[in-house]
Amino acid sequence: MKIKPASNNQLKLWKKLLHGKYRKREGLFIAEGQRCVNQILQNGIIRVEAIVVGQNLNEVGLENPGNTPVYSLSTDDFMAMSDTENPQGLAAVCRIPEEADPARLSGTPGLVVAIDGIQDPGNLGTIIRTASWFGAKALFYGHGTVDPFHPKVVRSTAGATGSIPYVKGGHHELIAGLESNGHPVYLLDGSSSSISLKSINPEEKGIIVVGNEANGIDPELFKKNRAAVRIEGKPGHVESLNAAVALSIALWHFYGTT
């Protein structure tokens, strides 16, 4: 495997990808860490433009780069393009995949996960990873949700980034479009007025909406023809479930019990 030293221009670009406006402009994002990079390479779904190593190649755990070019950086320069305090010395520069066509999703079976205002990168990364595990057919990223290609989100997915088609935009339009084509809507809501998730019979297709960690789902998404569902637990001192945990339980109900 031939390793080339990275140029100053390459390093300058990769450092910029830590910021959302440059990711959007360049259509690129950074995946970092052994597990994350190797899983993305193994999946073969996302186009990897370059692999970057910040130390001896034998020490970073790169498994199979294929024909992807590999570049080296000094330890200091690698840290400059990383958002972690103790980087593993392995990163991939990846092409952001194109968004899916919502109209094409309407006629296919499966669940869509609609993410409403999730702002914690770790939470969103876990949601993406969990949705991928259960085979969700698409992800809707609503306004106010952290960039799914933020380095912390990508790292938290453990390589699941890009494994599910996605659409960004306003949930009102995206959800209504699928709803009109027979997708029932389930809003994860912990209020006493919601019905138990146990009472919901899994259907062939649907939309699960998970909301902001502190404020929940946008109230305007609650409509008479949509089911607000809660996950029941034992009374105690916990106010609510973590958003990613709640979604995991809901996906298990729809997929794991069928």
What labels describe this entry?
258 residues; alpha/beta; 60s Ribosomal Protein L30, Chain: A; Alpha/beta knot; seven-stranded parallel β-sheet; five-stranded mixed β-sheet; 10 helices; 33% helix
Secondary-structure map with pairings?
Layout: E1 3-5, H1 8-16, H2 20-26, E2 28-32, H3 34-43, E3 48-53, H4 57-60, E4 70-72, H5 75-80, E5 90-95, H6 102-106, E6 110-116, H7 121-134, E7 138-141, H8 151-156, E8 166-168, H9 171-179, E9 185-188, E10 195-196, E11 205-211, E12 227-230, H10 243-256
Helix pairs in contact: 7-10
The description of the largest β-sheet is: 7 strands, parallel
Domains counted in the coordinates: how many? Answer: 2
Round the Cα radius of gyration to an integer and report it.
20 Å
Question: What name does the CATH topology of the largest domain carry?
Answer: Alpha/beta knot
Taken as a percent bin, the fraction of beta residues is 15-25%
CATH level 1 class label of the largest domain? Alpha Beta
Structural class: alpha/beta
- For the record, the CATH architecture of the largest domain stands as 3-Layer(aba) Sandwich
What's the tally of helices? 10
Distance, first to last CA: 46 Å
> What percent of residues adopt helix (DSSP H or I)?
25-40%
Mean pLDDT: 92
Which parts are unreliable, with pLDDT below 50 for 5 consecutive residues or more? none
The geometry reads as: elongated
Number of beta-strand segments: 12
Query: At the fourth CATH level, what is the homologous superfamily of the largest domain?
Result: SPOUT methyltransferase, trefoil knot domain
Order of helices and strands: EHHEHEHEHEHEHEHEHEEEEH
Q: How is the largest sheet built, in terms of strand order?
A: 8-7-6-11-9-12-10
